[in-house]
Design brief:
The structure is a homodimer. With about 250 residues, the first copy, chain A, is an all-alpha fold. Chain A has a single domain (about 1-245), classed as Up-down Bundle (Rhopdopsin 7-helix transmembrane proteins). The first copy, chain A, is built from eight helices and two strands. Chain A has helices at about 5, 15-40, 50-75, 85-105, 110-135, 140-170, 170-200, 205-245; strands at about 10, 80. A two-stranded antiparallel sheet of chain A has the order 1-2. The longest helix of chain A has about 35 residues, at about 205-245. The first copy, chain A, is globular, with a radius of gyration of 19 Å. The relative contact order of chain A is 0.14. The interface of A and B includes residues 18, 37 and 78 of A.
Chain lengths: ~250, ~250
């Protein structure tokens, strides 16, 4: 019988490459849980209508902290389960979009259909990436990469349009913080489709490529979750201050 | 194949030296998590504009508690990963500076550029220390020690200048608490560059030097994080009382 653990990938990195990825994973665990506490403690500092954006930020980094804890533990034991990343993204990517929609200042009539479209596209994007990620065939990897890029571009196009519209409506401070959030998302999200292609470009056996890929995913997750969450919190705090000047 | 665990340093201390470090690490874990709860419970006791200084204190001791828990577990298994200390400092040193800046009472126009300069210097300081720490060559250790001392002195010079200016503006109570925070930082931070040099001065194989070094780092971390956090909390509480006497 095939046991569960024998299905996982064996960690092939050694020496300083192994240790760098090990330390980066541990640093991400610490960062995610630190951000979790920070967001929870700051949720009550923003007006009610934006509070859930901050709560969702906390939930996202909590989910990511859990997954990085499991990834780190596996790595310590010499095993790697790529599935953790996809389970994490399946949960957190829709939530990251929901955070942004809450602080965009849209009417609920406008927000609801936008939420449904973006969440559906996000689930499709992650779902289509997975078969390519686990496949060892280059052509399968390319096909699912191309398919996942369709919802990827669709999401970014909608966000770009909505944020451009919002920055025209809003104060300079809010507009700047919204542009920062979008910029962080763009920067981080560009890492994922590139890191995904590393095994094709450099070969499955390149330890350098695998090291850069794991560190790249980790840095992208830090930018897309805790740092992005700080930008969302900044928008929520600025809006709170602008809408009730006396309260601050 | 080299397994991951064989890459870590093997703990070479034995007998009472091993046991002393073991017990000190465990004491630090308990202290950090105790301080975590205390700071979280006290955050709501200070005015809104200083609250995040206390929340950041909680986050810092939480991150340090996580890293000491991992260091302690490794030590129990006879292994030591110096990377944990650097991952911890990379996250916590910028946060310690941010805490202080929040309670210094600066305008946000003054605070923002100062935050960027100090955080950049802190990241440089830790990043430059690491290559020397993991090197076994004395000359490499000295070079990176000297390089890391540049941002180290830059940070302390800025803090000294800002705190001297603040103590002139502020009440005697706030001034005293700010001087205490700076004094704790100075005292703790002097331990790090000295402990770093122990392997050069006493040789890599001196078990006495390694014992003093690990205990020294631990005591410095206690002074620089929970005890320093108490000084920050004192500043925040005094300011809260002075700015709204009726609220207390």
């Amino acid at each position: 019988m095939t046991t569960g653990s024998s299905l996982m990938n064996t960690v092939t990195l050694t020496g300083n490459e192994y240790l760098l990825v090990y330390n980066v994973f541990s640093l991400v665990v610490a960062s995610m849980f630190a951000a979790f506490v920070y967001f929870l403690m700051n949720a009550s500092q923003v007006a009610k209508q934006y509070r859930n954006a901050v709560v969702v930020s906390a939930v996202v980094v909590g989910i990511a902290g859990y997954h990085y804890f499991r990834i780190f533990s596996g790595w310590s034991d010499g095993q790697f389960n790529e599935g953790y990343r996809y389970a994490d993204w399946l949960l957190t990517v829709p939530l990251l979009l929901i955070e942004l929609l809450i602080v965009l200042g849209l009417s609920s009539e406008k927000r609801r259909p936008l939420t449904i479209r973006l969440v559906t596209a996000a689930v499709l994007m992650i779902g289509l990436g997975y078969p390519g990620e686990i496949s060892t065939s280059d052509s399968t990897k390319w096909i699912f990469w191309a398919l996942a890029m369709i919802p990827f571009i669709y999401i970014l196009a909608i966000l770009y349009k909505e944020i451009t519209a919002a920055t025209k409506r809003e104060s300079a401070g809010v507009a700047q913080a919204l542009r920062l959030a979008l910029g962080l998302l763009l920067l981080a999200w560009l890492v994922y489709p590139i890191a995904y292609l590393f095994p094709i470009i450099f070969g499955e056996d390149s330890s350098m490529a695998e090291t850069v890929r794991q560190v790249g995913y980790s840095v992208a997750d830090l930018l897309a979750k805790p740092v992005y969450g700080l930008a969302i919190l900044a928008v929520a705090k600025l809006r709170t201050r602008e809408e009730a000047p006396s309260a601050n």
